[in-house]
Amino acid sequence: MSANQHKQHDFSGKVFLSSTKQTTFYALRWLLLSFLISICIGSASAGFLISLEWVTSFREEHLWIIFFLPVVGFLISWIYGKYGGNADRGNNLIIDTIHEGGDKIPFRMAPLVYGGTILTHLFGGSAGREGTALQMAGALADQFSRPMRLSQEERSILLIAAVAGGFGSVFGTPLAGAVFALEFYFIGRMRYHALFPALLTAVFSDQVARMWNAHHTHYHIDVVPLQTWQGIGWALVAGLLFALCAATFSKAMKGMSVFWKNKIAYAPMRTFMGGMLVILGVYLLGTSKYIGLGVPTIVSAFEQQQLPYDFALKLLFTVVTLSAGFKGGEVTPLFFVGATLGNALSFFIPLPTAMLAGMGFVAVFAGATNTPIACTLMGIELFGAEGAVYIAIACFTAYLFSGNTSIYRKQRIGEPKNGSTSFQDKTISDVD
After folding, report:
1. What is the C-alpha to C-alpha distance for residues 364 and 376, in angstroms, rounded to an integer?
2. pTM check: above 0.85
3. Which of 36, 117, 133, 186 is most buried when burial is the number of CB atoms within 10 A of its CB?
């Protein structure tokens, strides 16, 4: 070997050792950070899930309590107006902080959104849990950014990891949680250097929540059809209908929020009136089926035929509840809407009812959040891999055809869905 070859070999070896050392340091650092924030996030999610279970059970045994929903809504909005500050921006604050940095996410976001969501569910609002889990996770994790002397880029990764932990632990789907965190804030782009921290935090947080014996609902698709040209075609049709439903939900949320603000200037009074409308709806329909999380109906949608308009009523109750100012997430109501819509589609789409319910469960969510990969993984984690192709077709079709809509108004468009560059790097609120 010549002298030049020796030098080249020497240089390559030093570069390899240096790179390995940097990678090892990066991995160990994020292993420690992920573990620390996961203890907080997983415990918070477990406490939240256990509390939700308790208040839901109490409400269903004492339905008279829903008559206090308007007063409780007034109180929630008043507290947020008095003490919430920018915490009232919720998930949009987390998205903006990931992109731009800025002030520390206030710790008070965690107890405020927890308390507001628990009260919303206890007194009969139609809301979910994902938004609360993400906000608690983001607020808790950001408290570590200054003590750990994180740069802005590292802080962004920390918040992405926190979102992964909150999502993964509240639904028991760590793989979906990790990818959701990479998809939800930037349509069409991912920060791959955040993959490792996001996955670790999602897995660790889920394990911590399970250690606290937090309960996750199980769903079952009993019959998965063979992949045929006919089946694939019908899956595309279903995906288009799920996209329409997702876009309707997102646009209705925006439109109703604007309506409330234009008609009633005082925020607590908006929530009061929203509570009155929910009570009126329960009274006129004679059922509490469309308030709260609606998990029993979601489970039933996989097992037996539901009313063909269940999805529309749940969508309406949720839009009224959340646009008026009550607290909670949109995702579990979207699961309800998607599963019951899929169930209704089985009247004319020749695919098994449970399969369509499962496809709708994740596809409406994919269209409303622009997270098709995460939703496909969620379907696989929840229902098994046998129906992965049908689930993926539904999710990707719903994502593509839901257009420039989202439940996250500050979500940015990295790469437009149709290849156009006209909306690139704008937010959903700029183009919707």
Report:
1. 11
2. yes
3. 133
Which residue reads 């983001």 in tokens? 138
Per-residue tokens: 115: 């308390």
Q: Give the Cα separation of 375 and 396 in Å (integer).
A: 9
Alpha helices per DSSP H over 143-173: 152-171
Cα-Cα-Cα-Cα torsion 399, 139, 161, 128, nearest 10 degrees, comes to -40
Instruction: Name the residue with tokens 């929903």.
Output: 69
User: Could you tell me if 51 and 58 are in contact, meaning their C-beta atoms sit under 8 angstroms apart?
Assistant: no
Backbone angles phi, psi at 72, to 5 degrees: -65, -40
Alpha carbon of residue 20 to chain centroid = 36
What is the rounded CA–CA span in Å between residue 118 and residue 247? 27
> CB of 95 within 8 A of CB of 185?
yes
What is the structure's pLDDT at 414?
85
CB-neighbour burial class of residue 226 (10 A; exposed 0-12, middle 13-18, buried 19+): exposed
pLDDT for 188 equals 87
pLDDT of 15 reads: 52
CA 190 to chain centre: 17
Which residue has tokens 């808790």?
140
**Are 75 and 118 a contacting pair, CB within 8 Å?**
no
10-residue mean pLDDT profile of the chain (432 residues): values are 53 57 89 97 97 96 96 97 91 93 92 96 95 96 92 95 97 97 92 94 98 91 93 98 97 96 95 97 96 96 96 98 94 96 97 97 97 97 96 98 92 82 74 70
